[in-house]
UniProtKB/TrEMBL annotation:
Alphabetized Gene3D superfamilies for the sequence: 3.40.630.30
Principal subcellular localisation of the protein: cytoplasm
Keywords: Acyltransferase, Cytoplasm, Nucleus, Transferase
Gene Ontology molecular function: any one: histone H4 acetyltransferase activity
Native source species: Exaiptasia diaphana (Tropical sea anemone)
Name by which UniProt lists this protein: Uncharacterized protein
GO terms under cellular component: cytoplasm; nucleus
Subcellular location: Cytoplasm; Nucleus
Length: 74
């Protein structure tokens, strides 16, 4: 993603999630969230309108946890 797209994704995530994070035990950290969102393993599905403007996103990663069975969702 371009730097502008990363910033858009971060801003949208912050607008929608910061309050929920602050109300949880996790808390919110701009620095940690940006690091998470720009990891090499980060993947995005971005929904764009007819003018190619981003309107929604899904951020995900494929992680394997040690000592756990694989889980596949579909």
């Amino acid at each position: 993603m371009s730097p502008d797209e990363v910033q858009w994704a971060f801003d949208l995530t912050k607008r929608n999630m910061e309050t929920l994070y602050e109300e949880s035990e996790w808390g919110w950290s701009d620095k940690k969230k940006m690091e998470e969102m720009t990891e090499d393993t980060a993947r995005y599905l971005i929904v764009r309108d007819s003018e190619d403007k981003g309107v929604a996103l899904s951020h995900f990663r494929f992680d394997l946890d040690e000592n756990m069975d694989e889980v596949i969702y579909w």
